[in-house]
Design a protein that fits this description.
alpha/beta
Length: about 80
């Protein structure tokens, strides 16, 4: 799991070396890959932004969906790019 900074939430990059982080945040909300982007439900994304207002680094642990699973699940259609 890569450590994400506030910059990584905005630029969509997720491939990087694992490095120490201040917190491990476990989210029960699935992330999915679609059209080369990482998507997550908007309320979870807002929550990650709130955490990053107070801490510079987080490691996020969350389930993932394949593109086919995401397409079959109508709740993922409102997902926003990480």
């Amino acid at each position: 799991m890569p450590a994400m900074s506030a910059d990584h939430l905005h630029d969509g990059t997720a491939e990087q070396a694992i490095r120490p982080a201040e917190h491990l945040l476990v989210l029960p909300v699935p992330f999915c890959h679609r059209d080369g982007r990482i998507l997550v439900e908007s309320q979870a994304l807002m929550g990650m932004h709130r955490w990053l207002e107070n801490f510079q680094t987080l490691i996020i642990a969350a389930p993932t969906l394949s593109a086919a699973q995401a397409e079959a699940d109508p709740s993922t259609r409102a997902s926003r790019s990480v």
